[in-house]
Each structure stands twice: as structure tokens, then as C-alpha cells.
Design goal:
It is a single chain. Helices cover about 35% and strands about 25% of the residues. The chain has about 375 residues and is of the alpha/beta class. The chain has a single domain, classed as TIM Barrel (Alpha-Beta Barrel), CATH 3.20.20.80. Strands 1-2-4-5-6-9-10-17 form an 8-stranded parallel beta barrel, surrounded by 6 helices. Strands 11, 12, 13, 14, 15 and 16 form a 6-stranded antiparallel sheet that branches. The longest helix has 25 residues. It binds 2-acetamido-2-deoxy-beta-D-glucopyranose (NAG) (6 copies). GO terms for molecular function: chitin binding; chitinase activity. Keywords: Glycoprotein, Glycosidase, Hydrolase, Signal.
Amino acid sequence: MASKNLLLLFFSLLFLLHLRSSAGQTVVKGGYWFRASEFPVSDINSTLFTHLFCAFADLDSQTYQVTISSANAVPFKNFTKTVQIKNPSLKTLLSIGGGSSNPATFASMANQSTSRKAFIDSSIKLARANGFSGLDLDWEYPGTSSEMANMGTLFDEWRVAVAAESRNSSLPPLLLTAAVNYAPRVNSVSYPTTSIGRSLDWVNVMAYDYYAPSYPRSRSATGAHAALYDPSSQVSTSFGISSWNQTGLSSKKLVLGLPFYGYAWQLVNPQNHGLYAPANGPVGSGDGSMGYNQIKDFIVTNSAVSVYNATIVADYCYAGSTWIGFDDSQTIVTKVSYAKQKGLLGYFAWHVGVDNNWVLSKNG
Ligand SMILES: *[C@@H]1O[C@H](CO)[C@@H](O)[C@H](O)[C@H]1NC(C)=O
Ligand SMILES: *[C@@H]1O[C@H](CO)[C@@H](O)[C@H](O)[C@H]1NC(C)=O
Ligand SMILES: *[C@@H]1O[C@H](CO)[C@@H](O)[C@H](O)[C@H]1NC(C)=O
Ligand SMILES: *[C@@H]1O[C@H](CO)[C@@H](O)[C@H](O)[C@H]1NC(C)=O
Ligand SMILES: *[C@@H]1O[C@H](CO)[C@@H](O)[C@H](O)[C@H]1NC(C)=O
Ligand SMILES: *[C@@H]1O[C@H](CO)[C@@H](O)[C@H](O)[C@H]1NC(C)=O
């Protein structure tokens, strides 16, 4: 009982502290730098961002410690000081996991207090040793309700540890964020929104990948993979954001994802080139994804026709039998206005290395 009250007192204090800090919180204009893109860190126009996420650190499946691979060691260590040359007030976060990491390793880690502690302590050490001002968890995705509950426990314990480390080091507490699904449910289970609300600074809402030419369910028809609206389904960014809002999680904890990439489908008939046109999976041997810079090159090289659909807020272009769904400037501008109108904390790009001369990043 006593310990329960102490815990309550602790979270009340945390809440008060948080109110104080969020009152001064400015809009987040975030972006991920993805090491695999090989985009040089020194070329990032960091004046366009308030926060940059360095992706990705790894979770060791034996020790449950967060590690930085030897290939990433030098660029990650150098990341913060390099991006702060052009923008000294920029904050950087070390992002852990990502779409190609194994969700089962995260599930096992979050399942036991000793392995959560290994994760938490090593992540804090790694952030400080490499000059980051925060940590971001990209666990894609928890698959059961107990995994979601464990994720919530992890967030609460992470916050306690980060607060203790800050008192101890006299440094500002590390920021804590997580990348989450576009809607507050994934795999039919709900995110731990109470823990998110009290223990994370915000979540990055991955508002994209609704359709892709490599998914069995969407390979045979073109589709807008990140439409803001969809009058005929619940798979859209506005549906996701209003669902997050309905959980009671503050809008000031939501940062909207903007995809700086699209997907190329192979049209069955080049004359039938609209939305939902019959298609034969991805163009090329991969998943059909293309960076915004590649898409702009494709449009110029092939004199592709580009269409902005203001009903759903999405762009597509086509030439020959290639059809590409993506976000062009008008779509990004409209999504940024949407984020502001809904009172969200901000927005972020996945990922900065594929912008085209900073055209999309400048729309914020
Ligand atoms: C970087 O962004 C700033 C602010 O928009 C702009 O003035 C500058 O021209 C940009 N630099 C490059 C190289 O695009
Ligand atoms: C480290 O960053 C500096 C700029 O801060 C840059 O000049 C240097 O090339 C970087 N070194 C490596 C190994 O990335
Ligand atoms: C979580 O722990 C329970 C009991 O401690 C165990 O039965 C279960 O297999 C564990 N799950 C994972 C994903 O490690
Ligand atoms: C506080 O600092 C001491 C000395 O550096 C260290 O041994 C201890 O583990 C730290 N505690 C926390 C919670 O960081
Ligand atoms: C939900 O959205 C409405 C309308 O934008 C807003 O007034 C309300 O504050 C939001 N709820 C939370 C908990 O932020
Ligand atoms: C725009 O999208 C709406 C909704 O899917 C659709 O009805 C309309 O035909 C589309 N317009 C164009 C030009 O593709």
C-alpha cells in the first residue's frame, strides 16, 4: 500500500513537472536520418528541423542491451556535433529498432524487469556517450495485449530511470519518444496510451504504408499509401489521428509522420492509370518503394503525368506502365496545416536523405 502511494505521488510530481515543460514546448519539426540511405550527415540542412532522429541502434537478443553496430559507430558518434554546426539548438535522438528489427526480441526484453533494466540502463549510457539528447523506440510492432502492457511498463520505468539519471548528472533529462502505428491499435491490440501520456515526451505517428505493391492485399490495385482522407475506408491519416485523439491521449503528444517516399506499381493496362487501377505488384525487383528525389527524377526523365487529388490529399504520377503514389509539396503543405489545425505537437519526415533539394522539408 505504502509503495503504491509513493508511486502515485511520484507520477503526480512527474505530471506537474511535465506541465511545466510542455508549456514551453515549441513545435517539433522532426526528421529521421537513416544510415542505410548513405546520405552524408554533413549535407543535412539542419536549419529546417528542431529534432533529428539517428536511425537505428540495435537491441542485442542475448543481453537485451542497446548497441550501436561497428559500421554505425563513427557516423552515430559524430552525428550530433555535425548537425549542430548549422543549427546549434537542434536536438538529436538515438532511434532504436526500426522496421527490419525483430519484434520478438523487443517482446522478450519488455517481458522481464531484469531485461527491461538492461535495455534502459544501456540506452541511457549510449545516448550520453554519443551526445544525443534523447531516445526513440521503434518496436514494430507489439503483437498481443500483454506485449502492449509490458511496453507501457517499459515506458514508465524508462521515465523513472531518465529522471534519476538527470538528477544524478545535472544534465537535462533525455527526451523519450516512440514510433507508433498510424492508429492506436495494431495487430488488434491497443497501445498503452496512459503510460505513453505520462512517460513519453511524444509519439511519432507512422502515418504511411497503408497500401504497398508488395502487400498481398494491395498488389493488384494502385493506391495512395498515405492519404490524409479516405471517404470510403478507415485507412487514412485523419482516421488514425482522430482515433488517437479518442483514446484521450493529448494532441500535444502526437507528431505526424510525413513520408518522403512513395510506391511504384506496375499497371496492367497503361491506359487505365487512375487510383485503384488494376496492377501487377511492384515495379522492379524490390518492394517498389522510391525516394521523393528518385520520383522527381522519374517524372522529368519519363515526362510522367502528375496528379494531385485534393479529396484524399495524395499525389500520383504515371508514365508507360509505371504508376507511383507519393506525397508531393501540396500534399505535405496540406498535412502540415492539418497537424497545426488539430493542435498536434508537430510532424516528422521519414526520411531526410531522400528529399529533393529540401523542397518538402521547407514546407513546414
Ligand atoms: C537550408 O534551409 C534554409 C532555411 O529554409 C535556407 O535558407 C537555405 O537556403 C537551405 N540551404 C540549402 C543548401 O538548401
Ligand atoms: C565528423 O564530423 C565532422 C564535422 O563535425 C566532419 O568534418 C568529419 O568528416 C566527420 N568525421 C567522420 C569520420 O564522419
Ligand atoms: C514472458 O514471460 C512469461 C513468464 O515469465 C513466459 O511464459 C513467456 O514465454 C514470456 N514471453 C516472452 C515473449 O518472452
Ligand atoms: C549516479 O552517479 C554515480 C556516480 O557516477 C553512479 O555510480 C550511479 O550509478 C548513478 N546513478 C544513476 C541512477 O544514474
Ligand atoms: C481531441 O481533439 C479535439 C479537436 O481537435 C481537441 O479539442 C481535444 O483537445 C483533443 N483531445 C485531447 C485529449 O487532446
Ligand atoms: C480523387 O479521389 C477520390 C476519392 O477516392 C475519387 O473519387 C476521385 O475520382 C479522385 N480523383 C482523381 C482525379 O483521381
